[in-house]
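User: Hi! I have a protein structure encoded as tokens and I'd like to know what sequence might fold into it. I'm fairly new to this, so please keep things simple.
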């Protein structure tokens, strides 16, 4: 068997990036064309699933906030069982499996159970979505750091380290913050960021459904509500957001493609 073949009884944990199938790693695509069974989440887009080998069995394991199609322990147990049946198992996760993806938990189970696995990184939402929104996360005129942070509630409260998040010269890329957008903006201002700090929220970035709303910490929540945005969204806070005004290339390229009649 060549080293490039997908061995039976093996699990590949693969990140699929933010949505555009052209952003898949070459290795991810090769494995998608060799697997026997694929377990996928709701954020793995139909355009990406269309590239999986047609004969492969597809198992949707869900995850839309609290409404999980399968609990995490059952997903991990299923991976173990399928691998032990001698199948070539592909676990697809949107973005990167190790960035807010619970990929670590799944392979911990595999390691404990002695199931062989590999990990293929993907482009995480912060990087892919920012690129398609024309927002360079660490443009050196504006930011010395970029923090990837979850805006999801834990135990009913947003237990974030607001003081470290509200530092100047840094960009925040906030995952899973849609439901708490207003509170996030309020807390950042309460902890020292100017209410005029530029901020953006990007819905379904790096897909044909991408929508971007920009404003500042005082206005973003109202603007997002007015635009009726829906998750998944990524929130970006920091001076870098201003650059989108000049660098928003994706919408322009789609418009050009539409005018040429080559857009889906
Ligand atoms: C459970 S996390 C998974 C993150 C993923 N592992 C990654 O590396 O991008 C889901 C969150 O990622 C963000 N996200 C993922 N894909 C996105 C996209 N195409 N556009 C906007 N946000 C996205 C959203 O904040 C969403 O709520």
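Assistant: Happy to help. Inverse folding works backwards from shape to sequence: for each of the 264 positions I chose a residue that suits the local structure. Here it is:
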């Amino acid at each position: 068997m060549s080293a490039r073949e997908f061995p039976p009884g093996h699990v590949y944990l693969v990140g699929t990036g933010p949505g555009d199938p052209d952003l898949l790693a070459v290795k991810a695509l090769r494995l998608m064309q060799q697997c026997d069974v694929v377990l996928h989440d709701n954020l793995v887009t139909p355009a990406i699933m269309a590239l999986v080998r047609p004969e492969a069995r597809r198992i949707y394991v869900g995850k839309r906030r609290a409404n999980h199609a399968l609990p995490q322990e059952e997903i991990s147990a299923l991976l173990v069982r399928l691998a032990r049946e001698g199948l070539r198992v592909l676990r697809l996760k949107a973005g990167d499996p190790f960035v807010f993806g619970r990929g670590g938990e799944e392979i911990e189970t595999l390691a404990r159970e002695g199931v062989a696995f590999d990990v293929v990184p993907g482009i995480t939402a912060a990087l892919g979505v920012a690129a398609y929104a024309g927002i360079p996360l660490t443009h050196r005129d504006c930011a010395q750091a970029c923090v990837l942070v979850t805006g999801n509630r834990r135990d009913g409260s947003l237990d974030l380290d607001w003081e470290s998040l509200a530092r100047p010269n840094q960009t925040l890329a906030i995952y899973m913050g849609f439901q708490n957008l207003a509170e996030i903006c309020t807390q950042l201002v309460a902890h020292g960021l100017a209410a005029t700090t530029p901020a953006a929220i990007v819905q379904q970035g790096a897909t044909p459904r991408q929508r971007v709303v920009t404003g500042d910490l005082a206005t973003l929540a109202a603007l997002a509500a007015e635009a009726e945005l829906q998750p998944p969204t990524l929130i970006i806070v920091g001076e870098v957001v201003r650059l989108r005004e000049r660098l928003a290339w994706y919408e322009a390229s789609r418009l050009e493609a539409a005018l040429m009649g080559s857009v889906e």
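A useful reference point when you look it over: The chain is about 30% helix and 20% strand. Feel free to ask if any position seems puzzling.
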